[in-house]
């Protein structure tokens, strides 16, 4: 059987920690989309680790970790990540499996990402500049290079043909670059990757399912960044929803059982695009400060705002969420009042549905206010020990979303987790 864990907002919901907490129940953790634009933070034993491409089960010895075909891999970045994780004593050669059908991020993809964002000027998406969009464009355009290609004799030629096209584009955009600066590290990383298990992952995953293993499919980014259903064009370039786990791992929907949806007790967004409940004021500043809301991958300050129920309900619907997990509840401690947006006013009419395009309509979030709470929640172990004001807030959220909130995370450490 396969369970899926994914984000219900604009990413950064705390997926890394939750996967790490859930992993003891699973034999396998498999990433199904995205690439090193992700930054999954894990904390245990007083140390913090950030994973970009490697699945978050890597620090559990029993766990098999798969990078699925739906992921895009930057060999240079993955090499660095493997070296860092190996330094903690993890045997990556034993536990990491890489799909031969995962697409490769070439140095020129990163350059094209930078050039096209620069060209868009104030309309830029605010990409992480990791080459994600150009790599997925080549995949869909049927001209991408895949991990399996590095094991073939013609790899150098395929690489040169692909990069020549990218260079033509870069030249036409008058973008200054020197490819020679990037290529030695790229080819060194490609050689490095050859020592790992590069496999036909769809057979591998389905054999694991047949033999009764429990698989956790790990999503990256969040539902509101999904290429089809997110706030287009301010999205990433892959399907971040449950459906992405099927195409990104080669599994049938029939195998999916639980879908864990993760949401933060408030909202954040990095990069540009609509954010109805954004607080560009002292409240937003306080959320950013208390929640350490700075990108795990890029270090950029995250935009912050109140919890938005219309988007949360939309994400629950698209993903078929069975279990909700609320993270960073501790961050709201100390606010005099806590707001939740439960509907919008769009062009004068109230609704709880998302419009076709949030950025092109006059959208006003309508809030319900709750008295805040104080004190350190991080050592609390049961729901009933939480302050009554917190429970009033959470019970209201629960009543609106009709799916049980089974886990409440009250701090970054594995231990700081309340299971209901
Ligand atoms: P890209 O995926 O790097 O092309 O970025 C597209 C948009 O998605 C930008 O607004 C990024 O800030 C955002 N984004 C991409 N990956 C993540 C993530 O892992 N967490 C949060 N936002 C992300």
Account of the 3D structure:
- With 420 residues, this protein is of the alpha/beta class.
- The chain has helices at 15-22, 75-86, 92-95, 107-120, 132-140, 155-172, 183-193, 201-210, 242-249, 282-290, 309-319, 388-401, and strands at 2-7, 28-31, 40-44, 47-51, 64-67, 72-73, 96-99, 103-104, 197-199, 215-218, 256-264, 267-269, 303-305, 307-308, 323-327, 337-346, 349-351, 363-371, 405-409, 417-419.
- It has a ten-stranded mixed beta sheet, sandwiched between helices. Strands 14, 16, 17 and 18 form a four-stranded mixed beta sheet that branches. Strands 3-4 form a two-stranded antiparallel ribbon.
- A hairpin with a 2-residue loop joins β16 and β17.
- The radius of gyration is 21 Å and the shape is globular.
- The two termini are 23 Å apart.
- The model has no long low-confidence stretch (mean pLDDT 95).
- Inosinic acid is lined by residues 10-12, 37-39, 125-128, 130, 132-133, 220-221, 225, 234, 236-237, 270-271.
